[in-house]
Amino acid sequence: MNPIDIATIGVTLIAIVFFGVWKTRNDRKLDEFLKGSSNNWGTIGLSVMATQASAITFLSTPGLAYDSGMAFVQNYFGMPLALILIAAVFVPMYYKLELCSVYEFLEHRFDSKTRTLGSSIFLIQRGFSAGITIYAPSIILTSVLGWDMNTTVIGVGLAVIVYTVTGGSRAVSVTHKYQMTVILTGMAIAFGIVVYKIMGHAGFRENLSIAGALGHLNVVDLSFDLNKRYTIWSGLLGGFFLSLSYFGTDQSQAQRYMSGQSVRESRLGLMFNALLKVPMQFLILLLGVLVFVFYQWERPPVTFLPEAMTEIAESVDANAYREYELRFENRFQEQRSAIEGYVGALRNGEPGEAESSKMELQNASLAVKEARSQLKGHIARATGQESMKETDYVFIHFVLNELPIGLIGLLIAVILSAAMSSTASELSALATITTVDFYQHHFVKGRGERHYMKASRTFTAMWGGLAILFALFASMVESLIEAVNIVGSLFYGTVLGLFLAAFFIRRIGAHAAFIAAIIAQFSVLFLYITDLVKIGYLWYNLIACLLVIVISYSIQLVIGKKEV
Amino acid sequence: MEPDPEIEIAKSVKKESSKGWTELYLIVVGVLVAQIAFFVWLTKTFD
Prior knowledge:
The structure holds two protein chains of two kinds. By secondary structure, chain A is mainly alpha-helical. Helices cover 79% and strands 0% of the residues of chain A.
């Protein structure tokens, strides 16, 4: 890697850590450390956005669009609606009760054991996610850049631990602003470069037509098919419940918007996200589609998988490898001619000609796909790593090969900043819940502010250490971005069910809610593990939530009157 | 009789929720609908 790129990465990351430590050097209050409580709506908005946008968002999402198009954006359709409900109902209630942990609300409404259950579910699923948040970008960066995996994981993890241990939640908020600036600048530049490159071959609309002809501009799917992962209905309904649970009941997000000066600032911060998140996700996916179009004009590598893997495959059976490579090369050249024919037909404006050229292009594309998948199969067999998905490597390959020196460093800084921003929120939230809901609530009561501050710092470092350990020993699970969403869908629904019952169904009492939550959680895990019902993972969230409400209401009917 | 603190909180929350925020929420819903309409157009035009 060029020294200018290394310097760009180093300066960006050191500046973020230094800024976080320096800005919070005089903070001594426990409340500031656990909540942070003086942010305006702009800081809250960016902090909420930075927490959700992990490195996986910038590595895997463009690759997902490269592979299968834009349909993933539908997952975010329910999010603005969920944020409205949270801003209108959840936020003022949380402020009134002056909560430090959102699960305290469950004790206010139900009882201590239900609060502990909510906090425990949070610790399990967020603890797992924190490891993946560090692991995901590390494995990709190390395999393509040749960095040492352990050094990368420990380096990213320690950088985050330094400023979250010293500055707590407030350090997380102030660093988020600058991390988002780096992220948005880097992504805008990458977008500009890919547009510039494809415009050298054809007009923007013609390039979009190529993407459309090859099935990559399928943004909205109106069909009612429960087996499909992304439809407008699963996005609106499943996405609504997933967002409601993530933003409304997950401490790592609630802590971000509860760090505001007032209810007004928190609500505006959430509405900032409600307006901008869908377009942002759309543009990240469109970036992936444009990279796809770029690689229809320019010959892509035979595979985007790291070079080390192709070398193994080549050494196992060089003749077979060369044969696959040659077949791919020929198919690609045929497809390139078909693209030129299609663009020519579009320019002529003859509908019949355009339609037949489009079909020719689609057939040529299928042949390229087949040649590529044969080669990938050969690599998978040779390396024994069949679960490794090529899509996670597409965007980083484009960055490393098509961006100029300096910007490569900036884009890698984007990925590392994103990893740090979401990990920081997670560690801060995990430490807050461990301190407030377990240490202070159950084990060591009535001690001074300094004692709990010290405990919070220790727990932050402890969770950071656990995340690093998890990342060091983790192995790949499907596509990275989906692994996080699947875990979220399996656990969020139960907690959301508890919160919705608490907010909206006064009849339900503590025991009924607690028993229903346990039954719902085990039922959803059972359904997922046994694969008894074949449904997209977003639906598990909704099922668990409904199970909690229906079962708790039924139990309450049997018990007769509300008992708390 | 002592007022129920839970009901008091709910009342004040409701009061605070209605201070002109409805318009902002409607704008957010309107923007979402416009975005989906744009995506449907994009799908129909290019797919």
